Amino acid sequence: LVSRLPKVGTTIFSVMSALAAEKGAVNLGQGFPDFDCDPALVDAVAAAMRSGLNQYPLMTGVPALRQAIAAKITAMYGRSYDAGSEITITAGATQAILTAILCCVHPGDEAIVIEPAYDSYVPAIELAGGRVVTVQMDISDAGYRVPWDKVAAAVTIKTRLIVVNTPHNPTGTILRPDDLEALADIVRGTDILLLSDEVYEHMVFDGVRHESLSRHPELAQRAFIVSSFGKTYHVTGWKVGYVAAPAALTAEFRKVHQFNVFTVNTPVQHGLAAYMANPAPYLELPAFYQRKRDLFREGLKTTRFKLLPAEGTYFQCVDYSAISGMGENEFAQWLTAEIGVAVIPVSAFYQEPRDSGIVRFCFAKRDETLQAALNKLAAL
Ligand code: PMP
Ligand code: GLN
Fold first, then answer.
1. Any idea where the domains of the chain sit in the sequence?
2. What positions belong to coiled-coil segments (predicted)?
3. Is 232 near ligand 2, meaning CB less than 6 Å away?
4. Across all residues in the chain, what is the average pLDDT?
């Protein structure tokens, strides 16, 4: 068999979780909460199962859930998406990303990915036969920023798609209104489409606002906007997400979606629809995670780790160069095996080998877990 993805091995998230388990380390590597979701959400799903909502839903998703999502987007970002023709329920954000890319990237097309980048974008573009063009974020004491002049310079006549991610994994960077303007300047007058990964939309700190591309009419008209309930409701294992996109894009998305998964499990969709009637859980998420971020940052201040800004998401990046001269992979393995705290090397989010001396911690953990990790890190 000739591999379709010859450069791909097991994802760094699985590798580090396995190593954490083997070494009995506190796992601050792979991004997922170690606490449970709201029991009311479980009850809502169980109620749907008990009432017999257990057969295929509509291919596009349960209407009540699509309506709840449309209402939320309007309330939060001021754009109205038609629940019938512009919102589709997916098997997590991962399937939304793959499907969006498969439906618009043709063999030979170029797609721009901004690094560091979540690990599913590049393989998805390659599976579509596209050519990945990477642009690296600038790093300074102010954190990671997108150099839009370099993105503009990467655009060619073959560019079909630009992938953006805000709030950004792994850096936590949040795009600002002027970032959206810069992106609009780049795509104006072209037929470039946008894929906006907004799975951390409700994890924004210090009063900074999430700039969903749906707020920006010019960008929204060419964007697939992706989100995931896994992040928002602490249920990463449920793998339910959605894509919001103008009707013409959604129609093409659904052609691929119906042969990709066809539908996403029914009772979870009904449970989520009922649970979404109350906006409190996602409106309270910024404060919930900001407290954990602050607790974790405060604890790290006694170490020689240099803290990078953490504006959003549930990740904290640190520069460890005052502690060790090891490469990122080696340092991550050492920290896991010898100190007992698992992390993710940021180099895993780049195509070309590189070592910036930066690793990512996930702070979506119980306070006791964060404290246990801080106790182990205190000596560094
Ligand atoms: N995009 C980003 C930036 C993520 O961090 C994740 C979570 N791993 C995903 C997409 C995938 O989300 P899901 O688990 O809903 O497929
Ligand atoms: N999104 C999570 C992270 O960045 C994990 C995703 C995965 O395990 N594929 O850590």
1. 12-30+284-377, 39-278
2. none
3. no
4. 97
